[in-house]
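Give me structure tokens for this 78-residue protein.
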Amino acid sequence: MTEFVLCINDGGNHASLIVGKVYRRLPDPHAESHNLVRIVDEDTSEPDGYLYPTSLFVPIDLPEQAKEALLATATGEA
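Here you go.
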């Protein structure tokens, strides 16, 4: 799976996920073996991210400039 995913279904997590939003994915082979994906969002109180069903997201490839912008925002460099 790629470093970024697009949310295609909030799975009832209306307060946590936004359909159409790009999220950063953290590698987690154990979670992935259970069809879960570890997602990082703007909530900096949980730097390890949250686990959600893989079916709520699709992997996407982004241009390098977009990746840099999203990563800078996540680390507070923007």
